[in-house]
Amino acid sequence: MSTLTQYLIIKLIDHQFRSVTYTKPDILFVGLISTVSNVKTGAVTELTGGGYARVACAPSDTNWSTVDAQGKTSNLIPLTFPMATDNWTPARYFGLWDAATDGNLLICSSLQTPRTVTTTTTPVFGVGTLVVQLDG
User: Fold this and answer.
1) Are 34 and 114 in contact (CB under 8 A)?
2) 13 three-class SS
3) Average pLDDT, the chain
4) How big is the CA angle at 35 (ends 52 and 51), to the nearest 5 degrees?
5) What is the pLDDT of residues 26-79, one digit of tens each?
6) How many domains does the chain have?
7) 4, HSE (Cβ side, Cα atoms, 13 Å)
8) Chain centroid to CA 79: how far?
9) Exposed, middle or buried: residue 68 (CB in 10 Å: 0-12, 13-18, 19+)?
10) By residue range, what is the domain housing residue 43?
C-alpha cells in the first residue's frame, strides 16, 4: 500500500473542495528510501552518495498504467538509476518527489522486493515493479 504525504493531501483537498488550484508536477522523480520515520511529514531516509540520484518519470499514460479497480498503477517503462560508484544502503521503499533534489515527497510505497545495490551495478526497475496503490 502507498501513503500520501500530508503535503499532497493538503494540496488535493484544497484543490477539490476550495478555490485553490493544484497543478501536478510536469515530472515525477523516483527516489529510493532505506527507512521511513514518518511518511506523512516526509520524514524518510533517502539513499545518498555513491552515484545515487533520483530518476525522472513524467506522469503520463505511456509511463504509468491505467488505475485498476483496486486503485493501483505501476510503471510501464523500465526505470534506470545511475551506476553505483559505491555500495548503496539497502532500499526498502521508493518515493515520488516533485523535484530532482530537495522538493516535496508526494507518495511513498514499499518495494515489492527490497534492493541492495553494489558498486558498478546499474539498478533497473522493470515494467510493473514500482506499484502505487491507494486505499480509500
Assistant:
1) no
2) helix
3) 95
4) 5
5) 999 999 999 999 999 999 999 999 999 999 999 999 999 999 999 999 999 999
6) 1
7) 12
8) 11
9) exposed
10) 2-133
